[in-house]
């Protein structure tokens, strides 16, 4: 499916059709480059939590995720223990999935360890494709390689489809469809 024209006359990627949180995310954030360890860890964590759920669910819960995960400060999350996991399992404002919460802690620890080799941002960007895709996809050779690379570094819940979504979200390449008003604006 190609881009669609909204009731406001603007052509967008089809998932950003009507007014609301998804359109706002599409128009102002999705596909824009982010910088810094906490920005990368936040997006990686939220993409993992989104797995099997709608992205609008995650966007609506993002303020609570930021609060309970200390604005995605890797060292703070890396220090979480079993009591913190139980506290988060009882937190109704976030997605309460033990495997995903434990993966967030594991990934924070792996992020801290990755600092010795340039850090999470540089590592993810090293897998950037040479050009942006023109057609929608759910994974790529680069997302498969990123997934394998992160797993070797101790990360969890970083499958190729989740890593493709991460690469789209943080502007590793331009994810907007040809014809979308955002295409080429990153």
Describe this structure as you would to a colleague.
This is DNA-3-methyladenine glycosylase I. It comes from Nocardioides caricicola. InterPro entries: Adenine_glyco, DNA-3mA_glycosylase, DNA_glycosylase. Pfam families: Adenine_glyco. With 186 residues, this protein is mostly helical. It has two domains: 1-33 and 174-186, no CATH class; 34-169, Endonuclease III, domain 1. 51% of the residues lie in helices and 2% in strands. The chain contains nine helices and two strands; from the N terminus they run ββααααααααα. The protein has a two-stranded antiparallel sheet with strand order 1-2. The two termini are 22 Å apart.
Feature tags:
2% strand; mainly alpha; 186 residues; 9 helices; Endonuclease III, domain 1
What's a quick, concise take on this entry?
This is DNA-3-methyladenine glycosylase I. 51% of the residues lie in helices and 2% in strands.
What topology emerges from the helices and strands here?
Elements: E1 4-5, E2 11-12, H1 21-28, H2 37-50, H3 55-68, H4 74-78, H5 82-89, H6 98-114, H7 120-125, H8 141-152, H9 160-169
Antiparallel strand pairs: 1-2
